[in-house]
What we know:
160 residues; mainly alpha; Methane Monooxygenase Hydroxylase, Chain G, domain 1; 3 helices; 59% helix; elongated
Amino acid sequence: MKKRAPKEDLKKTLQLExxxxxxxxxxxxxxxxxxxxxxxxxWDQVMARRSDMVFxxxxxxxxxxxxxxxxxxxxxxxLDIPLEELISPDDEDSCELASLLDQLLALIERLNLQxxxxxxxxxxxxxxxxxxxxCAYPHPNFQPLTARRRPGVKTKTEKK
Length: 160
């Protein structure tokens, strides 16, 4: 049996994490529909499925941290290392890893936005007994990731 390189393991782990996060986003959209239709039974089923997804996602993130440590050749590695530091411009896998990281960050942003929308709808269900519910898009308190400075990315105003 051929052993994979740590960067191959990292790519595989990121791909699995992205796939599971897409399922989680779909689940959040199902929750939105259940909240808008005030269907408590459907909402309970959606939340039960989500608990399994969150548990699996937690295990994948632990696995990704371990693989990140292997890539750094430090065993388990520190938990606070940005994945952007693992990408070397000279490495042939750098383009694919950068793409996976961008997908991961975009999904995190979309998950946060959908979760904020669902929170607003859930708060409205406390005050309304029947539909229709309304949710502003985007949520007033939502700050997109692109508005924050990403680590390792220099802006035009910064001096090198």
